[in-house]
Structure formats: C-alpha cells, structure tokens
C-alpha cells in the first residue's frame, strides 16, 4: 500500500493542529516530522517537546526524520515523545547497527536515510536490521526543492535488492515530490512518499492529499 506522508516542515506551525487535521481528513495515515540541528544540515527545526504535543492531538503514525549529528544521543527521546518510526542518516552514524537496535529496543521502527550522493550499495548487509529505508531525493535541509532525477534509479536498485533478499521493508522518498512526478516515484518502487510544500502550500491540503492518494493508486494499477 502506497502512503502519502505529509511533512509538517511546510505547515503553519502557529496552527499545527488544524493543519494536521486537514491532511488526516484527506486520508493521510503517516505524518513526517523533520528534525534539524543546524550542524548536519544548515537549518533548525523541532525537538521532542513538539513531537510530544503532536502526539497529544493525533493517532497518525509519527515518522521522525533525524537530520542531526549524534542521532544515537537523541533518538530515544523522540521515541519517548511519541514517535512510531525514527530514521537516522547513514552519514551521521558511526555505529549504525547499534543505533538501529537502540531505536527498535525503545519500541519504534528504525529507518536508515541516505543522502542523494550516498550509494544504495552501502545498505547491502545492514538491510536486515532496518525496518524501512528513506532515500533523500533532495539535499536535506529545506522544503520546496527540486527532485534529483538520479534518485529514482536508486529506488529501482533498492527495490531489486529487497526482492533479492526477500525483505518487505518499505522504501520512503523525501523531497521534491508533487502531483506531476508522483506517478514516476510510485512506479520506481516507493511505498511512503513524503511531501511537504506540495501539500501545505496548496490552497486545499485536504483535497491535495486525497488527489495524491488517488494518483498513487492509479500508478500502482498501471504498474501491475
Ligand atoms: C527536507 C525534508 C523534507 C521536506 C520535503 O530536508 O527532509 O521532509 O519537508 O519538502 P518538499 O516536499 O517541499 O520537498
Ligand atoms: Zn524529511
């Protein structure tokens, strides 16, 4: 099942509960929360208290994307704040296996994120201890960027790799996805499709999520 995953990075933080209610009405089942520390990426966003506040107002799966140095020091705090899935960058983890194990032990799904320039090949041996993989389709740090086309080839490679290993782990994509390229992203093999500005900067986020869900379902129907 392909999921449209709204990223609140482009939402109006002064009216976050209303923004979340809109995408929930549109059919979203997962919500993406971007955590940035001003070191791993040149931007700052939210910490565990905001995740906790969001947890209090929704039952959606909270998918936390850590764009921070030393994710091993902070991941547990996000799970305790209510995150259901937490992803850490391969590029930020010195002991990736241990960090993934810690997230799982805390009770959340553990995801590995790759920057656009990091090859899928680095996942070959660690795939079994991850619950999902997030492939960045922009350089992380900001919403509203253009999707980097070569990332779709990475999605196809990862799709082949998971089939070879008989693993069902979801492939997530993040950055630059909008209505016009959604079909390509789905056909490449993505399951969780993060999209921020295309939803929250649209005039009707609820209708946009609904339309994206329909468009994704049509793309799958064509694929098989
Ligand atoms: C970028 C973030 C994304 C961002 C995507 O570093 O990880 O989640 O919100 O935004 P759009 O969909 O606008 O590219
Ligand atoms: Zn993200």
Class inferred from helices and paired strands: alpha/beta
Shape: globular
Q: SSE order in H/E notation? A: EHEHEHEHEEHEHEHH
Unique ligands: D-xylitol-5-phosphate, zinc ion
Per CATH, the architecture is Alpha-Beta Barrel
Beta content: 15-25%
- Overall average pLDDT: 97
Structure annotation, total helices = 8
Topology, number of strands: 8
Low-confidence stretches: none
For the biggest β-sheet, the strand order reads 1-8-7-6-5-4-3-2
Alpha carbon gyration radius: 16 Å
Describe it for me?
Helix 1 runs parallel beside helix 8, helix 3 packs parallel to helix 4 and helix 6 crosses helix 8 (205-223). The chain is globular and about 45 Å long. It contains eight helices and eight strands. The protein has 224 residues and is α/β, with parallel strands linked by helices. The structure holds D-xylitol-5-phosphate and zinc ion. D-xylitol-5-phosphate (DX5) is lined by residues 7, 9-10, 32, 34, 65, 138, 140-145, 174-177, 194-198. Zinc ion is lined by residues 7, 32, 34, 65, 174, 194.
Task: Please outline what is shown here.
The chain has 224 residues and is an alpha/beta fold. The chain has helices at 16-25, 48-55, 71-80, 96-106, 151-164, 182-188, 197-200, 205-223; strands at residues 3-6, 30-36, 61-67, 85-89, 109-114, 132-136, 171-174, 192-195. The chain binds D-xylitol-5-phosphate (DX5) and zinc ion (ZN).
């Amino acid at each position: 099942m392909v999921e449209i995953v709204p990223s609140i990075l482009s939402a109006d933080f002064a009216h976050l509960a209303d923004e979340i209610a809109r995408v929930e009405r549109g059919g979203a089942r997962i919500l993406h929360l971007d955590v940035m520390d001003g070191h791993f990426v040149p931007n700052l966003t939210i910490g565990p208290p905001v995740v906790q506040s969001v947890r209090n107002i929704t039952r959606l799966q909270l998918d936390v994307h850590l764009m921070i140095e030393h994710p091993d020091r902070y991941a547990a705090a996000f799970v305790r704040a209510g995150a259901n899935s937490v992803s850490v960058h391969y590029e930020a983890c010195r002991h990736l296996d241990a960090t993934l194990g810690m997230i799982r032990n805390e009770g959340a799904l553990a995801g590995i994120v790759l920057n656009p320039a990091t090859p899928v090949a680095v996942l070959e041996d660690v795939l079994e201890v991850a619950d999902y993989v997030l492939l960045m389709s922009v350089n992380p740090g900001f919403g509203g960027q253009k999707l980097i086309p070569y990332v779709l080839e990475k999605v196809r490679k990862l799709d082949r790799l998971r089939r070879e290993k008989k693993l069902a782990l979801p492939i997530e994509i993040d950055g630059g996805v909008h209505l016009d390229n959604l079909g390509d992203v789905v056909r490449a093999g993505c399951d969780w499709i993060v999209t921020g500005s295309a939803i929250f900067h649209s005039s009707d986020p609820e209708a946009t999520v609904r339309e994206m869900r329909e468009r994704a379902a049509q793309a799958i129907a064509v694929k098989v």
